[in-house]
Automatic annotation (TrEMBL):
<keyword id="KW-0547">Nucleotide-binding</keyword>
<comment type="similarity">
    <text>Belongs to the ABC transporter superfamily.</text>
</comment>
<protein>
    <submittedName>
        <fullName>Zinc ABC transporter ATP-binding protein AztA</fullName>
    </submittedName>
</protein>
<feature type="domain" description="ABC transporter">
    <location>
        <begin position="19"/>
        <end position="244"/>
    </location>
</feature>
<dbReference type="InterPro" id="IPR003593">
    <property type="entry name" value="AAA+_ATPase"/>
</dbReference>
<dbReference type="InterPro" id="IPR017871">
    <property type="entry name" value="ABC_transporter-like_CS"/>
</dbReference>
<dbReference type="InterPro" id="IPR003439">
    <property type="entry name" value="ABC_transporter-like_ATP-bd"/>
</dbReference>
<dbReference type="InterPro" id="IPR027417">
    <property type="entry name" value="P-loop_NTPase"/>
</dbReference>
<dbReference type="Pfam" id="PF00005">
    <property type="entry name" value="ABC_tran"/>
</dbReference>
<dbReference type="InterPro" id="IPR050153">
    <property type="entry name" value="Metal_Ion_Import_ABC"/>
</dbReference>
<keyword id="KW-0813">Transport</keyword>
<dbReference type="InterPro" id="IPR047748">
    <property type="entry name" value="AztA-like"/>
</dbReference>
<keyword id="KW-0067">ATP-binding</keyword>
<dbReference type="GO" id="GO:0005524">
    <property type="term" value="F:ATP binding"/>
</dbReference>
Amino acid sequence: MKMIISAIRRGGASGVRQVTLDGVAAGYPGRPVLSQLDAVIPAFATTAVVGPNGSGKSTLLGAVAGVISVTAGTVTHRTGARPAYVVQRSAVSDALPITVRDTVAMGRWGRRGLWRRASARDRSVVEGCLERLRIGPLADRRLAELSGGQRQRALVAQGLAQEADLLLLDEPVTGLDEAARRIIAEVLAEVTAQGVTVVQATHDLRAARRADHCLLLHEGRLLDSGPPAGVLIDEALERLWGLPARR
Ligand SMILES: Nc1ncnc2c1ncn2[C@@H]1O[C@H](COP(=O)(O)OP(=O)(O)OP(=O)(O)O)[C@@H](O)[C@H]1O
């Protein structure tokens, strides 16, 4: 326990593994994506999963979340608890006739079961998550009526409401304005400091540089991993995205 608390205080460099991927292959029917992927997600820290479009970031998150089956290798979790998985907002149908509060409350289903009534604690967690993402005033609006940034905050709030020890987010800040990005970044930093392991797939290299750990994917393989300062180097950015070196 002492080790865990001091790891939380140090921002995660504990050596404790939240998830270990060993020789993982995964993909879709007729479309293998990840292959021979070995990677570690450190506990109590933030990990950024980066790589060009189509490199397999979402597939990796899906395999860690358990929603995409691995066809070879193993994904081992430190705890048996179910991770919280926040999908890309484009994956959420506009036709869903639910309010923002309902959306966040769905995050409690895994804990209490679908058919049990929400407890006082369930309701207080939901209200707390709405507040944290600053969407309390939107709680009674329909999810489909929200802007992209507001909807994304509702989905992150749903992920938080699950109170999981592992929070997986697929491009949580893509397409958002600076204010919404900051709100989400602050909340993710807070929950990491509270001992949650956070993994986000992102195209935002600034966000990736703020992470404790980085996994760099290319064509379904792990090209590099480690502290972002050592992974997101000019050579890698130039090779993968054709970006010129920064001065
Ligand atoms: N449901 C699916 N069925 C078949 N192929 C898929 C499916 N989803 C993704 N793919 C393919 O798998 C590959 C990896 O996709 P994935 O979404 O994991 O990449 P990504 O790195 O998250 O991409 P992006 O940055 O564009 O979100 C791509 O070639 C994509 O076309």
